[in-house]
Please model this.
Amino acid sequence: MIKIHSCFEDDTMVIIELSKDEDNNHHWLHYVKITGEFVRLWLRNRDFANDVAEYYFEQGFLKVRDNTAVFIEKFNFQQHTLRKLPPGVKILSLIETYAGKMSSQV
Model:
């Protein structure tokens, strides 16, 4: 079973943190709404200072505070302000697809 820990979204993208029950590793996914591209973010480091959580991925940087986040893309430095929301039906469907791929890799 998949557990969704957080889902951050704006008009162009969604960033999702999830894990499987039997796996303590958290997976981070990035979905680009315009292209339909759905890729895993590779976490390199994280830092929790006061009320801010910072996540450093191979593809960019995510700074989370309360119900908002800022994602800065590594290769083009675009900055996206995201809000924490429950995942919608389309995102849940994409997560199911990803979960199937996770299961087949075990």
